[in-house]
Description:
alpha/beta, single chain, seven-stranded mixed sheet, globular
Amino acid sequence: MKDFIRKTLDKAGITLYRNHLLPVGTDYRKTLRTLHGTAGMRTVLDIGANVGQFCTACNEILDQSKIYAFEPVLTTFATLQKNTAKIKNIECSTLGFGDRPQTVEMYLQDLSTVNSINPASNKRRSENQKSQSMEIVTVDDFCTERNISQIDLLKIDVEGFDLNVLMGAKRMLTERKVTYIFIEVTFDNSDAYHRSYQEISTYLEQFGFKIFGFYNQNVFHGSPYMNYCDALFRLQPIER
């Protein structure tokens, strides 16, 4: 009977897995639930929340966690607030993050998902292009101010400014106060709009992180290779 159901679903283009047997890279939410358990995932930082795609998806399995969602672009932030208004454990903020506190001017793009203060993309492209001033803080300073002693999941998607955000979390990383990092990376050295996997991995290795899996793999139309994806890094236990 099981074989019949499996073959029938396979013909319909559907494959079923038990959660604990799901291939790495298939669904980050189920990976996190399997690795850490929902009860133990208490604090999540979603840096580069856009309209709430990640934080609302995480809330499906981490509904007991405190999720901080950060989106500095005001028009996008308004949508983020609307999308999370009924989710009590998600707190939204317009703060941006980097390697040092500063105030920067961001030139706004037509597509909200590519807004960034990454110098490669943060350029005025027309006389009528709108811009916005925004406050940049560090992860370390935010955690100190809010009395956050542990980040169970740090998600970063800031279109090429990701390594700067990690540099601003140096104290938390050094003190092993971050357990998982979910961050966008590229494998294309000519891609100026994302940070390379090699850069991110090398930086995190010094703090005891190793790659666990790749998710949301993207191949540009017509490209013969994978262009970028989300990488899940996991803090390794100290060897004794």
